[in-house]
Amino acid sequence: MNINVTIPAPSAKTQEFFARKHKLYIDGAWTEGVSGERIDVVDPGTGNVISSATAAVAADIDKAVAAARKAFESGVWANMPGLERGKLISKLARRLEELGDELAEIEAIDCGKPLAYAKYVDVGLTANIYHYMAGWAGKACGETVSLSAPGEYHAFTQREPVGVVAAITPWNFPLVLTAYKLAPLLAVGCTCVVKPSELTPLSTLRFAEIAEEVGFPPGVINVVTGYGSPAGSALVEHEGVDKVAFTGSVATGRKIAQAATGNLKRVTLELGGKSPMVVFPDADLDKAIPGLASAIFFHQGQVCTAGTRLYVHKSIHDRVLEGIAAESKKLKIGHGLEPDTTMGPMISSAQLQKVMGFLDQGKQEGAEVVAGGERIGSAGFFMQPTILANTTDSMSVVREEIFGPVLCAQSFSDDELDAIAAKANDTIYGLAASVWTRDISVAHKMAKRIKAGSVWINAHNFYDPALPFGGFKQSGWGREEGSEAIRTFTEVKSVCAVL
Ligand code: NAD
To answer: For all residues of the chain together, what is the average pLDDT?
Structure first.
């Protein structure tokens, strides 16, 4: 197993950014938190504290929501011509691209990901989402409607911004998952309060500075840092919030759905997953094997759509597992700033312990470790990419979201697509799935049978701003991205004139 041990120093600019006493961004101004409490921000590649953020409390949330409300009701953003809103969102996208190296460095250190991936995926996809959604500004239109009542009417629908949105994000892709929410909500004229994860607040704080520099009116984008409770919970309970757009765990999603009942705010939830990958005997294994390895080991498996359950036909089972194991050994594990690193650390000591706990349980239940399975070193939170064979549907490693680099493999001998799909669908989750075959008919028949928000054919973890993204079953409510996102941040109004 390769592991990088050297840790290059961040650029002087990033060091200066980390050293700052970060405040909250409310109503266009950087504001001290009411409580004075701070949150230590840790580099998961070293375990060292690198910065700190403000721990917002309910009083700070009140101020942020009031600012977003004032900006919304003033019409400064909602009534701006769509073209002008779009231009500002495009300007933001271009600025994010220009500052790509700096943003990628912050994200690579704070989230523990290889710098090149942070540049390409985190910054690249983020900028593309803003570029794409800029084009939607001013285009969220309604339609004219023919009525069946006797008489003459002019009836039509129009889409109006839902209002003040609380955007709450997890720690695995802070910039991307903020963009999933902000790009469409800004396009349709909403205002927002963003709360990033307490584990990874830094790129969202830098994002707020960039949004300020680009010229968004005060109060349109507010950023508060803080813990799930009290900051996140105050936000989702707040009567001044019209909608919560949340990405995170199922457990928190449930709490949010309950908290939203006070003023019956709108809620979209992007939650966990346990995505199956089904490999048929005719698959192009030269392409499938690296694809399957990347599906589970990319960002250490800390991806909601990670391909965690592998169902492979028994005729190719051994070859596929050996191939994925060989791919795992090629990974260069280390700190994200080391140029040749291809796999970083787990986000925290707690997450590492959680994943190791799942592994212990899996072994006790009879799973066979055919690759990896161990923590690496004691500095930082590194672990080996791991493959478990002979797993069964009842094992906790197969049923629960591990959120680590652990592949659970099973073989199938069935030729009945319904039976194979039943295995793939045997989960409370329904976020994503992939099917690997050269038979286009089998591929589409399986895509139809699998109950998941995204089904990829001969690929996994494929995202595009135009493709709606979200989950069936307990993987969530609603969709982000594409035209669906525009719908979820608008209310439909029916207007009917009796002529
Ligand atoms: P989490 O649910 O612990 O936290 C997510 C966010 O919610 C954080 O900002 C946190 O501070 C906040 N929060 C916690 N308690 C809250 C409360 N009571 N009220 C309001 N906010 C609260 O999730 P996590 O550990 O940060 O992220 C990992 C989870 O996110 C995994 O389950 C993963 O599958 C999921 N995820 C889903 C997607 C998706 O698009 N479906 C994408 C990435 C991650």
So the answer is: 97
238 Cβ below 6 A of ligand 1: no
Which CB contacts under 8 angstroms, 24+ apart, belong to 321-326? Answer: 321/370, 321/387, 321/389, 321/409, 323/285, 323/289, 323/293, 324/289, 324/292, 324/293, 324/296, 324/371, 324/387, 324/407, 325/370, 325/371, 325/387
Closest Cα to atom 8 of ligand 1: 197
pLDDT in tens, 13-57: 999 999 999 999 999 999 999 999 999 999 999 999 999 999 999
Check pocket membership of 247 for ligand 1, CB cut-off 6 A.
Answer: yes
- Residue pLDDT, tens place only, 162-194: 999 999 999 999 999 999 999 999 999 999 999
Atom of ligand 1 nearest to the CA of 469: 40
* Residue to probe by mutation, ligand 1, list 125, 193, 249, 349, most atoms within 8 Å of CB: 249
As given in the structure block, the two tokens for residue 498 are 């009796």
Which of 219, 194, 240, 206 minimizes the C-alpha distance to 100? 206
Please give the positions annotated as active site: 270, 304
408-443 per-residue burial string, b: 16 or more CB within 10 A, e: under 16: bbbbbeeeebeebbebbbebebbbbbbbbbeeeebb
Count of C-beta atoms within a 10 Å radius of residue 371: 20
**Could you read off the pLDDT of 350-369 as tens digits, one per residue?**
999 999 999 999 999 999 99
Of the candidates 185, 74, 94, the residue with the CA atom closest to the CA atom of residue 140: 185
The rounded distance, in Å, linking the Cα atoms of 263 and 267 is 11
247 CA distance to ligand 1 middle (Å): 5
Q: How far apart are CA 455 and CA 448, in angstroms?
A: 9
Is there an atom of ligand 1 within 6 Å of 168 CB? yes
**CA–CA distance, 237 with 364 (Å, rounded to integer):** 42
Given pLDDT bands bounded at 50, 70 and 90, which one contains residue 8?
A: confident
Helix axes 285-297, 317-330, angle to 10 degrees: 60
pTM of the model: 0.97
For the CA of 272, the nearest atom of ligand 1: 34
Q: Residue 174: which of 200, 210, 198 has the closest Cα?
A: 200
- For the Cβ of 431 lying below 6 angstroms from any atom of ligand 1, the answer is yes
